[in-house]
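Complex record, two chains
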Amino acid sequence: QVQLVQSGAEVKKPGASVKVSCKVSGYTLAELSMHWVRQAPGKGLEWMGGFDPEDGETIYARKFQGRVTMTEDTSTDTAYMELSSLRSEDTAVYYCATARPDEMPTIYWSYWGQGTLVTVSS
Amino acid sequence: EIVLTQSPGTLSLSPGERATLSCRASQSVATSYLASYLAWYQQKPGQAPRLLIYGTSTRATGIPDRFSGSGSGTDFTLTISRLEPEDFAVYYCQQYGGSPRYSFGQGTNLEIK
């Protein structure tokens, strides 16, 4: 089993940055393809970016390019998602998500973090 | 850009009934070994999404066999054969391989009638 535990809720002012962490246990981060998905209040799921097996690198949704950075610390099995130049529309729950490569293609996500609420407000 | 459109937006049914949820893509979803890269997720309030179906029709681990997926090309369906009380939730389809590389439909809210 893979467990993903995310950092706690954040409140940020417009223009600031936020960095959300996702700690992996039960597997090593180096063997996983981590993705980030967000959900604004009362809205649907929105893919932000992640490690793509076809490209062999982290790719980002066009909407977030230039504002988002996804990194990994394999020594602590922790993934990070940093979003800059925050605006009120970035208020959302942010999820990390992944799958075990021995269970299914990693382009689908069977393991999810509990979510981190980021509130952007002046 | 590939857009996934789910219908209906809201589906009102009773426990024991059959649910049919649709996901239509604006262009053909990418395929591998004849199966489209299309998945279905279930989400309940306050919870993270849960993977139900991947590769169009393969049930994820632990998913009951009352859930089934089908389709190809641009038209996909999630069927719940006999609704249980715990099945009332929001359902999302997800594709891989288009532009953007990953994307979700807007969701179908399955509510108790």
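Note: The longest strand of chain A covers residues 18-25.
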